[in-house]
Amino acid sequence: MTIKLLIADDHHVVRRGLVFFLKTQKDIEIVGEAKNGVEAVAMVKKFQPDVVLMDLVMPEMDGIEATREIKRALPSTEIMMLTSFSDQDHVVPAIEAGAAGYQLKDIEPDELADSIRKLVKGENTLHPKATSHLMTRTNPDQQSPHEIHQLTKREKDVLLELAKGKSNKEIAASLFITEKTVKTHISNLFSKLEVSDRTQAALYAVRHGLASPDRKF
Protein backbone atom coordinates (compact mmCIF):
# COMPACT_ATOMS: atom_id res chain seq x y z
CA MET A 1 0.00 0.00 0.00
CA THR A 2 1.28 3.45 -0.92
CA ILE A 3 0.49 6.18 1.62
CA LYS A 4 -0.45 9.50 0.04
CA LEU A 5 1.00 12.29 2.18
CA LEU A 6 0.47 16.05 2.26
CA ILE A 7 2.91 18.29 4.15
CA ALA A 8 1.64 21.57 5.65
CA ASP A 9 4.23 23.88 7.22
CA ASP A 10 4.94 27.56 6.73
CA HIS A 11 8.72 27.11 6.94
CA HIS A 12 10.22 26.27 3.55
CA VAL A 13 13.33 24.69 5.08
CA VAL A 14 11.21 22.37 7.23
CA ARG A 15 9.09 21.32 4.25
CA ARG A 16 12.19 20.70 2.14
CA GLY A 17 13.77 18.62 4.90
CA LEU A 18 10.65 16.49 5.28
CA VAL A 19 10.37 15.98 1.54
CA PHE A 20 14.07 15.11 1.24
CA PHE A 21 13.73 12.25 3.70
CA LEU A 22 10.19 11.02 3.16
CA LYS A 23 10.51 10.74 -0.61
CA THR A 24 13.09 8.00 0.01
CA GLN A 25 10.39 5.85 1.63
CA LYS A 26 9.08 3.46 -1.01
CA ASP A 27 5.60 3.25 0.55
CA ILE A 28 5.08 7.01 0.99
CA GLU A 29 4.10 9.34 -1.88
CA ILE A 30 4.17 13.09 -1.24
CA VAL A 31 1.21 14.54 -3.13
CA GLY A 32 1.59 18.18 -2.13
CA GLU A 33 3.11 20.87 0.06
CA ALA A 34 1.12 23.66 1.71
CA LYS A 35 2.56 26.73 3.42
CA ASN A 36 -0.56 27.58 5.41
CA GLY A 37 -3.85 26.11 6.57
CA VAL A 38 -5.88 27.54 3.71
CA GLU A 39 -3.66 25.84 1.16
CA ALA A 40 -3.72 22.62 3.18
CA VAL A 41 -7.53 22.45 3.14
CA ALA A 42 -7.66 23.15 -0.60
CA MET A 43 -4.99 20.54 -1.37
CA VAL A 44 -6.71 17.91 0.74
CA LYS A 45 -9.90 18.39 -1.25
CA LYS A 46 -7.93 18.14 -4.49
CA PHE A 47 -5.52 15.28 -3.77
CA GLN A 48 -7.39 13.38 -1.00
CA PRO A 49 -4.26 12.26 0.88
CA ASP A 50 -4.26 9.48 3.45
CA VAL A 51 -2.27 11.59 5.93
CA VAL A 52 -1.49 15.26 6.47
CA LEU A 53 1.62 16.26 8.41
CA MET A 54 0.31 19.48 9.96
CA ASP A 55 2.20 22.31 11.61
CA LEU A 56 0.32 24.12 14.38
CA VAL A 57 1.29 27.76 13.91
CA MET A 58 0.83 28.98 10.32
CA PRO A 59 -0.42 32.22 8.71
CA GLU A 60 -3.95 32.74 7.34
CA MET A 61 -5.28 29.59 9.03
CA ASP A 62 -3.51 27.69 11.81
CA GLY A 63 -3.17 23.93 12.04
CA ILE A 64 -6.04 23.45 14.47
CA GLU A 65 -8.62 25.25 12.34
CA ALA A 66 -7.26 23.55 9.21
CA THR A 67 -7.68 20.19 10.94
CA ARG A 68 -11.31 20.96 11.73
CA GLU A 69 -11.96 21.96 8.13
CA ILE A 70 -10.24 18.87 6.74
CA LYS A 71 -12.06 16.46 9.02
CA ARG A 72 -15.36 18.03 7.99
CA ALA A 73 -14.52 17.81 4.29
CA LEU A 74 -12.73 14.46 4.23
CA PRO A 75 -13.07 12.50 7.49
CA SER A 76 -10.99 9.60 6.16
CA THR A 77 -7.86 11.77 5.94
CA GLU A 78 -5.77 11.35 9.08
CA ILE A 79 -4.00 14.34 10.61
CA MET A 80 -0.67 14.12 12.39
CA MET A 81 0.45 17.28 14.12
CA LEU A 82 4.18 17.84 13.72
CA THR A 83 5.13 20.77 15.89
CA SER A 84 7.55 22.21 18.43
CA PHE A 85 4.78 22.76 21.01
CA SER A 86 4.23 20.10 23.65
CA ASP A 87 2.16 22.03 26.21
CA GLN A 88 -1.42 21.21 27.09
CA ASP A 89 -2.77 24.43 25.55
CA HIS A 90 -1.67 23.17 22.14
CA VAL A 91 -1.97 19.39 22.49
CA VAL A 92 -5.56 19.10 23.71
CA PRO A 93 -7.16 21.56 21.21
CA ALA A 94 -5.35 19.80 18.36
CA ILE A 95 -6.69 16.41 19.36
CA GLU A 96 -10.15 17.82 20.02
CA ALA A 97 -10.09 19.27 16.50
CA GLY A 98 -9.59 15.77 15.09
CA ALA A 99 -5.84 15.11 14.96
CA ALA A 100 -5.18 11.40 15.46
CA GLY A 101 -1.41 11.80 15.81
CA TYR A 102 0.83 14.28 17.60
CA GLN A 103 4.61 14.32 17.27
CA LEU A 104 7.35 16.85 18.00
CA LYS A 105 9.76 18.16 15.37
CA ASP A 106 12.76 16.68 17.16
CA ILE A 107 11.54 13.20 16.23
CA GLU A 108 14.05 11.02 14.39
CA PRO A 109 13.29 10.71 10.66
CA ASP A 110 12.85 6.92 10.78
CA GLU A 111 10.50 7.25 13.75
CA LEU A 112 8.44 9.82 11.85
CA ALA A 113 8.06 7.48 8.89
CA ASP A 114 7.05 4.66 11.21
CA SER A 115 4.54 6.95 12.94
CA ILE A 116 2.94 7.75 9.58
CA ARG A 117 2.59 4.04 8.86
CA LYS A 118 1.14 3.38 12.32
CA LEU A 119 -1.36 6.20 11.90
CA VAL A 120 -2.69 4.64 8.70
CA LYS A 121 -3.00 1.29 10.50
CA GLY A 122 -4.97 2.92 13.32
CA GLU A 123 -2.24 2.49 15.92
CA ASN A 124 -1.21 4.95 18.61
CA THR A 125 0.95 7.82 17.32
CA LEU A 126 0.76 10.27 20.21
CA HIS A 127 3.98 11.61 21.67
CA PRO A 128 4.21 10.57 25.37
CA LYS A 129 3.83 14.22 26.40
CA ALA A 130 0.58 14.43 24.42
CA THR A 131 -0.75 11.32 26.13
CA SER A 132 0.25 12.75 29.50
CA HIS A 133 -1.60 15.99 28.83
CA LEU A 134 -4.73 14.08 27.85
CA MET A 135 -4.60 11.99 31.01
CA THR A 136 -4.17 15.01 33.30
CA ARG A 137 -6.74 17.24 31.62
CA THR A 138 -9.22 18.57 34.19
CA ASN A 139 -12.72 17.68 33.14
CA PRO A 140 -15.81 19.12 34.85
CA ASP A 141 -18.09 16.41 33.42
CA GLN A 142 -17.77 13.39 35.68
CA GLN A 143 -21.02 11.74 34.61
CA SER A 144 -20.74 8.54 32.63
CA PRO A 145 -22.84 8.94 29.45
CA HIS A 146 -25.17 6.19 28.32
CA GLU A 147 -22.69 4.94 25.72
CA ILE A 148 -20.32 3.86 28.49
CA HIS A 149 -22.96 1.59 29.97
CA GLN A 150 -23.19 -0.25 26.66
CA LEU A 151 -19.59 -1.39 27.00
CA THR A 152 -18.73 -4.74 28.50
CA LYS A 153 -16.36 -4.90 31.46
CA ARG A 154 -13.53 -6.02 29.19
CA GLU A 155 -14.23 -3.24 26.66
CA LYS A 156 -14.01 -0.73 29.51
CA ASP A 157 -10.68 -2.21 30.58
CA VAL A 158 -9.38 -1.92 27.02
CA LEU A 159 -10.61 1.69 26.80
CA LEU A 160 -8.66 2.63 29.94
CA GLU A 161 -5.49 1.02 28.61
CA LEU A 162 -6.00 2.66 25.21
CA ALA A 163 -6.39 6.05 26.90
CA LYS A 164 -2.95 5.55 28.44
CA GLY A 165 -1.49 5.42 24.94
CA LYS A 166 -0.74 1.69 24.95
CA SER A 167 -0.38 -0.34 21.76
CA ASN A 168 -2.48 -3.43 21.05
CA LYS A 169 0.46 -5.60 22.09
CA GLU A 170 0.88 -3.72 25.39
CA ILE A 171 -2.87 -3.89 26.09
CA ALA A 172 -2.88 -7.63 25.40
CA ALA A 173 0.00 -8.18 27.82
CA SER A 174 -1.59 -6.00 30.51
CA LEU A 175 -4.98 -7.72 30.33
CA PHE A 176 -3.65 -11.23 29.59
CA ILE A 177 -5.57 -11.57 26.33
CA THR A 178 -4.53 -11.97 22.70
CA GLU A 179 -3.89 -9.08 20.31
CA LYS A 180 -6.70 -10.41 18.12
CA THR A 181 -9.08 -10.13 21.07
CA VAL A 182 -7.86 -6.59 21.75
CA LYS A 183 -8.61 -5.61 18.15
CA THR A 184 -12.12 -7.05 18.46
CA HIS A 185 -12.79 -5.12 21.68
CA ILE A 186 -11.44 -1.90 20.16
CA SER A 187 -13.65 -2.30 17.09
CA ASN A 188 -16.68 -2.86 19.32
CA LEU A 189 -16.03 0.13 21.56
CA PHE A 190 -15.40 2.37 18.53
CA SER A 191 -18.86 1.40 17.27
CA LYS A 192 -20.57 1.87 20.63
CA LEU A 193 -18.88 5.20 21.40
CA GLU A 194 -19.28 6.37 17.77
CA VAL A 195 -15.61 7.31 17.40
CA SER A 196 -13.35 6.59 14.45
CA ASP A 197 -9.87 6.11 15.94
CA ARG A 198 -7.84 5.43 19.07
CA THR A 199 -7.10 9.06 19.75
CA GLN A 200 -10.76 10.06 19.69
CA ALA A 201 -11.60 7.10 21.94
CA ALA A 202 -8.93 8.25 24.40
CA LEU A 203 -10.28 11.80 24.22
CA TYR A 204 -13.79 10.50 24.88
CA ALA A 205 -12.56 8.73 27.99
CA VAL A 206 -10.81 11.88 29.23
CA ARG A 207 -13.77 14.15 28.50
CA HIS A 208 -15.99 12.03 30.70
CA GLY A 209 -13.53 11.53 33.53
CA LEU A 210 -12.89 7.89 32.73
CA ALA A 211 -9.13 7.92 32.14
CA SER A 212 -8.11 7.38 35.73
CA PRO A 213 -6.91 3.95 36.85
CA ASP A 214 -9.02 4.12 40.02
CA ARG A 215 -12.15 5.35 38.29
CA LYS A 216 -15.20 3.15 38.93
CA PHE A 217 -17.57 2.63 36.04
TrEMBL record:
Keyword vocabulary terms for this entry: DNA-binding, Phosphoprotein, Transcription, Transcription regulation
GO MF entries: DNA binding
Keyword ATP-binding: no
GO biological process, one term: regulation of DNA-templated transcription
InterPro entries given in the database record: CheY-like_superfamily, NreC/VraR/RcsB-like_REC, Sig_transdc_resp-reg_C-effctor, Sig_transdc_resp-reg_receiver, Tscrpt_reg_LuxR_C, WalR-like
Residue ranges constituting the Response regulatory domain according to the UniProt record: 4-120
SUPFAM superfamilies: C-terminal effector domain of the bipartite response regulators, CheY-like
Keyword Transcription belongs to the record: yes
Domain HTH luxR-type per the UniProt entry, residue ranges: 144-209
Pfam families with a match to the protein in the record: GerE, Response_reg
Coiled coil: none
Chain positions with 4-aspartylphosphate modification: D55
PANTHER family: TWO-COMPONENT RESPONSE REGULATOR (PTHR43214)
Protein name, as recorded: LuxR family transcriptional regulator
Organism the protein comes from: Jeotgalibacillus alimentarius
